[in-house]
């Protein structure tokens, strides 16, 4: 045990410090890692949580997200409030981890941040399960529609589409959301016990994060290609689209598309930069987690 007054190392069964005479307080099983110094797991976590990579990732993610929300205030509504809260909570958690990693005090901040991530992961898992249930119902409806129509094309198409979405949602649920929650629980366990051989779930959560971030960057580039500074591709598309529909209803819809596409070039490059900043920031944070998990696989803390 460690004396809280003078910091000297004492025997596990010591009642008073042999150096200063202070009464020793035995840590319980639930607060060992947060009250007793020398927790090797926390020390290693500090190294990665206070790293330059983690800090730059947090700054980029925060800047990209914050400026994007400020630009979107002209569309402010109740859904914007929910979206802002959903984006701000993980940012708060990230900075709590960085603060705790640069401060040698107990890990209440990190534990609170992990609680935020665990709650958000749980909410997403529940919503994803509800979505899977609804898509399963849609697949059943598509199957009956196909049977009733004697193998009609619409029924088969619905069945195939819902089947593809169910497969993608199931993969996302299993290898991303559930894996993320397992990783959070594994880190919490390491903080409490002081030892760990691996971050469970990281081996699937980290690669999936790389894939999702890559898709985000790709679609950002596609959006700028369509709505970028020159806007040539979108103008050509909307021109030929308008040639096929002359009814007033479609003309009104076309005018709306033109208005939107004309306003987007002014923000196209800025939106791209914000999206890239957020994506690179998230990439650096996930890379930090991956390096931490890899270090535990190479050198387990027993």
Architecture overview:
- With 302 residues, the protein is mostly helical.
- The protein has two domains: 1-30; 32-228 and 264-298, no CATH class.
- Helices cover 76% and strands 0% of the residues.
- It has helices at 32-35, 40-49, 52-71, 78-101, 108-148, 153-193, 202-227, 232-244, 248-263, 265-298.
- The radius of gyration is 26 Å and the shape is globular.
Number of helical stretches of at least 4 residues: 10
Poorly predicted regions are 27-36, 229-234, 245-250, 263-267
**What's the total number of strands?**
0
Percent helix, as a range, is over 70%
> Which structural class matches the secondary elements?
mainly alpha
Question: How many structural domains in the coordinates?
Answer: 2
Main traits of this protein?
mainly alpha, globular, 10 helices, single chain, 2 domains, 302 residues
Write a concise synopsis of the structure shown.
The protein is an all-alpha fold and 302 residues long. The chain is built from 10 helices and no strands. Helix 2 packs across helix 4, helix 3 (52-71) packs antiparallel against helix 10 (265-298) and helix 5 (108-148) runs antiparallel to helix 6 (153-193).
Write the layout of secondary structure elements.
Blueprint: H1 32-35, H2 40-49, H3 52-71, H4 78-101, H5 108-148, H6 153-193, H7 202-227, H8 232-244, H9 248-263, H10 265-298
């Amino acid at each position: 045990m460690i004396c809280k007054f003078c910091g000297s190392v004492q025997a596990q069964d010591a009642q008073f410090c042999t150096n200063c005479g202070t009464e020793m307080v035995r840590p319980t099983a639930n607060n060992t890692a947060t009250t007793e110094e020398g927790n090797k797991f926390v020390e290693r976590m500090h190294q990665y949580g206070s790293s330059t990579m983690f800090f730059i990732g947090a700054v980029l993610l925060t800047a990209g997200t914050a400026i994007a929300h400020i630009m979107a205030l002209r569309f402010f509504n109740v859904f914007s409030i929910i979206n802002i809260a959903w984006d701000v909570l993980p940012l708060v958690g990230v900075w709590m981890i960085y603060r705790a990693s640069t401060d040698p005090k107990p890990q209440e901040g990190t534990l609170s941040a992990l609680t935020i991530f665990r709650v958000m992961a749980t909410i997403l898992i529940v919503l994803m399960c509800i979505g899977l249930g609804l898509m399963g119902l849609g697949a059943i409806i598509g199957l009956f529609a196909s049977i009733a129509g004697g193998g009609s094309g619409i029924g088969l198409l619905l069945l195939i589409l819902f089947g593809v979405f169910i497969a993608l949602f199931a993969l996302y649920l299993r290898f991303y959301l559930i894996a993320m929650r397992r990783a959070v629980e594994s880190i919490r366990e390491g903080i409490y016990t002081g030892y760990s051989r691996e971050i469970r779930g990281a081996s699937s959560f980290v690669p999936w994060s790389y894939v999702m971030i890559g898709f985000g960057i790709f679609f950002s580039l596609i959006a700028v290609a369509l709505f970028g500074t020159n806007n040539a591709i979108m103008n050509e598309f909307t021109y030929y689209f308008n040639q096929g529909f002359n009814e007033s209803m479609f003309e009104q819809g076309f005018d709306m598309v033109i208005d939107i596409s004309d306003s987007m070039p002014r923000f196209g490059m800025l939106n791209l930069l914000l999206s890239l900043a957020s994506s690179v920031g998230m990439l650096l944070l996930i890379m930090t987690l991956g390096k931490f998990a890899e270090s535990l696989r190479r050198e387990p803390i027993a």
